[in-house]
């Protein structure tokens, strides 16, 4: 199970990676959306993308639109520093939108497990 | 706990500090711009992102106080970004308080990586930031983050309520200094490391070539070559080429390895400036701190050593230099003071200036204090020039408790600052005082201590070194051109008297030979002089031979030899054995003591003669010239007061009636011609003898001197004391 983490804050990226690795997932990290798209091109069957919202060049929502436009099937989780509900309403296609905080440690692996389980059933 | 968050705290501290530096810079620009011109939209965006990143990481690590403050900062920056609120100096100061609050929390975390030990966020500050983000005065609804943290916020509020109101800001007595502390890790750019590794590859390849040479030599030795001599020639030639190639590579390797340890001054300047603002706030003063040149990199060793002195000088500027706002306004200055911290590259040196626009150093008060503390006798204090009095702040024991700042548990006074700069950093420090307008401290430091330019000389059969930075110039001149002054020799260098001392004699009084049995050096018609300069003081040392000047690795003095104040380090190079590098400031002190002794003996015997002593005023901008003229005149029984330029001389002449005035021509602020004219306009000085002593030999200058009212015009080039003393005796009758 491969998860791509996209975050321009190296510390946050590392934390997310550590959380997911502890839950037994393989992780890749990209610094920003363009970099992430290249990684997707190289590994088109990636299972999940966990992306930050505020990034240089292209924000998380724009990146999500790009991912869907290119037809990658991966699940897409957006992490944000503020108001996840607003973003979720703004972009209903997102699989989930989570607030970046210390609860990620439990919520993120749980969410990934749920999303990937439902996907495998489908 | 699936992941260990504590190991991320260290990373957070590093990352947050990077962002804090960016925020500090951006806010400084914002504060300088008027009407919002100071900062572009894209810069505001970058600041917003820095605050946002700090907030995100802090929240993931459960560092809620930092998260809340960053959130409030982000609110206000967001309002700037969306043009809802116009940035101005007041708001940038408010943001700065927020950034400073985060910085002290980060410092606290660095000292104690426990999220629960953090002081709660300053609720008032956060509220003010968020309120400022709202156009109009409508209080903002609670931020979404607050819902997430309600439980914790409640306990925090309870804690805050039971604590004194100012709990979140650290007490000024113990400023956070960890921003200036050194860590054991260093981030190195990957391309620098790659370059180093590539270079190592070249050196290894070069070394492989060298490994073939012994075989070649053996073949020649075994007679495998038809012609021995040309074969040896060719061998020597290729060996020399190898050595030269290797030298180039090794030097480059050394330079690059040292460069890895270089750190930008911003590491020191940013936290120091923050510290300064916190101190100013706690003292009820307003300060604008501007930084320039902090991209210049210094060797890490210097950066570490420089932290305390720099902090002390800055705190001193705020504490003693800047006046409270009302006092400033009364003096016609802007209410908020300015402290400018500037760094400038100068070849292999960096000059750091700390300039404040406060009240300056009160010379009269310092003079009284010097007498009270027994550093100077009343007579000495009376004759000392203003700059000599100001220099006393560097004397141990002069800094009273008021001047001592407790940094990391140690009392650091100006004397400690000076000794660190001079002895440990091989630099110099000067103070430039403008009473009522502020003080400027100038530090001059090498960029690295590992390798320095050393002048190697020989004196009294010993090879010795001086750091090139202390050597102003080297002169070779005929022995007759030395002047005899008060039983001491001097030389004139660019309108300045400089005392001359044979180095061998100075270092070892036993070298002193009776005039009858002159050494070979004494007999030679030429003298070789190395002129040392520390600040304004110069000393010409007579040496026998110049050996070399080159870049050498200076090894520090080992612990068991630390008592040798005259030696600052050792160099070994090539065939030379270990050579002592002399510590120029200590050599100057030694020379001053040696001179002072012989002169004061003379002065004492003269003064007891019981006749009325004539009082003279000597005005010259060169410290050495003043000192030497004073020596000569005291040796002939005159009492001497010194002044450092025309203005200083005029003030002193008005305070006290002198029997005669000696003045130089070229001086800052007011030249000698003008001074003569001004003195002649005073009733008290209409008939007082005025002697101009200058290196200007032109007849028209002489004419002008006499025209403005001087009684005599002595050219320094023809100076000998009998001439000066003869002139004075004739004038004073």
TrEMBL record, chain A:
GO MF, one example: DNA binding
Residues bearing PTM 4-aspartylphosphate: 52
Pfam families in the record: Response_reg (PF00072)
Entry-linked InterPro entries: Bact_response_regulator (IPR050595), CheY-like_superfamily (IPR011006), Sig_transdc_resp-reg_receiver (IPR001789)
Signal peptide extent: none
Gene Ontology terms: biological process: phosphorelay signal transduction system
Keywords of the record: DNA-binding, Phosphoprotein
Response regulatory domain mapped to chain residues: 2-115
SMART domains (alphabetical): REC
Name listed for the protein in its UniProt record: Response regulator with CheY-like receiver domain and winged-helix DNA-binding domain
Native species: Thiorhodovibrio frisius
């Amino acid at each position: 199970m491969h998860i791509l983490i996209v975050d321009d804050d190296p510390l946050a990226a590392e934390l997310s990676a550590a959380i997911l690795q502890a839950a037994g997932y393989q992780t890749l990290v990209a610094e920003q959306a363009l970099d992430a798209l290249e990684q997707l091109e190289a590994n088109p069957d990636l299972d999940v993308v966990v992306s930050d919202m505020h990034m240089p060049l292209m924000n998380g929502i724009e990146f999500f639109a790009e991912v869907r436009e290119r037809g990658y099937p991966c699940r897409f989780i957006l992490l944000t520093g503020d108001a996840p509900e607003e973003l979720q309403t703004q972009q209903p296609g997102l699989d989930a939108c989570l607030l970046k905080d210390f609860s990620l440690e439990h919520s993120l692996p749980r969410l990934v497990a749920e999303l990937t389980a439902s996907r495998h059933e489908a | 706990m699936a992941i260990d968050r504590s190991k991320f705290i260290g990373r957070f501290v590093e990352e947050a500090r990077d962002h804090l530096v960016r925020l500090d810079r951006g806010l400084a620009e914002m504060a300088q711009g008027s009407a919002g011109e100071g900062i572009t939209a894209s810069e505001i965006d970058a600041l917003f992102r820095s605050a946002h990143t700090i907030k995100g990481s802090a929240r993931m690590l459960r560092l809620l106080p930092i998260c809340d403050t960053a959130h409030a900062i982000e609110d206000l920056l967001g309002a700037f970004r969306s043009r809802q609120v116009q940035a101005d100096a007041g708001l940038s100061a408010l943001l700065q308080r927020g950034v400073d609050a985060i910085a002290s929390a980060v410092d606290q975390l660095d000292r104690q990586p426990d999220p629960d030990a953090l002081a709660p966020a300053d609720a008032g500050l956060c509220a003010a930031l968020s309120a400022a983000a709202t156009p109009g005065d409508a209080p903002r609804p609670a931020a979404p983050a607050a819902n997430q943290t309600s439980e914790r916020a409640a306990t925090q509020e309870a804690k805050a309520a039971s604590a004194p109101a100012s709990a979140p800001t650290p007490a000024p007595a113990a400023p956070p200094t960890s921003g200036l502390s050194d860590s054991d890790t260093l981030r190195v750019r990957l391309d620098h490391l790659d370059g180093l590794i590539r270079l190592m590859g070249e050196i290894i390849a070069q070394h492989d070539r060298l490994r073939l040479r012994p075989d070649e030599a053996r073949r020649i030795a075994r007679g495998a070559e038809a012609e021995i001599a040309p074969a040896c020639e060719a061998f020597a030639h290729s060996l020399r080429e190898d050595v030269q190639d290797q030298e180039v590579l090794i030097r480059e390797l050394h330079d690059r390895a040292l460069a890895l340890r270089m750190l930008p001054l911003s590491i020191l300047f940013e936290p120091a400036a923050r510290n300064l603002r916190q101190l100013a706030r706690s003292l009820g003063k307003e300060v604008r701190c501007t930084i320039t040149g902090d991209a210049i990199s210094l060797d890490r060793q210097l950066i570490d050593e420089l932290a305390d002195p720099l902090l002390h000088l800055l705190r001193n500027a705020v504490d003693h230099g800047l006046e409270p706002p009302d006092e400033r306004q009364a003096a016609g200055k802007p209410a908020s003071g300015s402290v400018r911290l500037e760094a400038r590259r100068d070849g292999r040196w960096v000059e750091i200036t700390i300039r404040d626009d406060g009240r300056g150093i009160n010379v009269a008060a310092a003079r009284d204090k010097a007498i009270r503390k027994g550093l100077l006798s009343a007579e000495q204090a009376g004759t000392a020039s203003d700059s000599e009095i100001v220099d006393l702040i560097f004397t141990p024991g002069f800094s009273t408790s008021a001047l001592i700042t407790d940094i990391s548990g140690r009392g650091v006074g100006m004397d400690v600052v000076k000794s660190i700069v001079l002895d440990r950093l091989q630099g110099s420090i000067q103070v430039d005082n403008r009473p009522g307008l502020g003080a400027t401290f100038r530090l001059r430091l090498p960029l690295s201590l590992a390798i320095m330019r050393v002048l190697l000389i020989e004196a009294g059969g010993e090879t010795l070194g001086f750091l090139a930075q202390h050597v102003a110039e080297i002169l070779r001149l005929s022995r007759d051109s030395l002047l005899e002054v008060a039983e001491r020799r001097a030389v004139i260098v660019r309108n300045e008297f400089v005392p001359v001392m044979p180095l061998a004699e100075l270092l070892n009084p036993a070298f002193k030979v009776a005039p009858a049995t002159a050494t070979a050096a004494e007999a030679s018609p030429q003298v070789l002089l190395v002129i040392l300069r520390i600040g304004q003081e110069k000393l010409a040392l007579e040496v026998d031979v110049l050996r070399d000047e080159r870049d050498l690795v200076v090894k520090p003095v080992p612990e068991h030899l630390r008592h040798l104040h005259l030696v600052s380090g050792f160099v070994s190079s090539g065939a030379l054995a270990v050579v002592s590098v002399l510590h120029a400031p200590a050599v100057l002190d030694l020379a001053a003591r040696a001179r002072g002794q012989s002169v004061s003996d003379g002065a004492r015997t003269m003064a007891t003669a019981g006749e009325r002593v004539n009082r003279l005023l000597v005005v010259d901008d060169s410290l050495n010239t003043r000192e030497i003229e004073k020596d000569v005149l005291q040796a002939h029984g005159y009492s001497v007061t010194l002044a450092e330029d025309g203005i200083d001389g005029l003030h002193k002449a008005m305070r006290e009636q002198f029997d005669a005035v000696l003045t130089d021509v070229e001086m800052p602020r007011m030249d000698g011609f003008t001074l003569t004219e001004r003195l002649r306009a005073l009733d008290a000085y209409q008939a007082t003898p005025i002697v101009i002593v200058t290196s200007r030999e032109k007849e028209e200058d002489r004419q002008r001197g006499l025209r403005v009212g001087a009684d005599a015009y002595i050219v320094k080039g023809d100076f000998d004391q009998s001439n000066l003393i003869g002139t004075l005796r004739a004038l004073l009758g």
